[in-house]
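User: Please go through the entry that follows and flag anything odd:
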Amino acid sequence: MCDANELRAEKTAKAWHIPAYYKELGQMLERESLVIVDICTPPQAHYPLIVQALESNCHVITEKPLTMTTEETKKIASAQKGSGTKISVVHNHILEPVMRKALPLIAKGDLGQITNVDVCIVVPPSDPMLCNKDH
């Protein structure tokens, strides 16, 4: 477990029975034998952490957006090329209010048998990610 907020890293590690926690990714990469790193930081922090993980031969999962600029994305592609590592960009909706409301209903069976789910996210044109032409 790694978090710039050491107290949060320690608390999360204890809650999930993770034997070690770190304040800096570099420390974790040096001390642990990792295969994959999941980057769950604000988007502006993705780029340096992804490159650091790739340079340690780790596969990477990251939340979207991959980076804040096309230049950073190109640099990541260059760092990844030929390394044998993979990068996956995901978006997890599990903590969004609608999901927090739906999951207990699904678990109790209140919604019957779920056979299909379609998700549509609508954001206003003023959304910060839409306003950035390099996003």
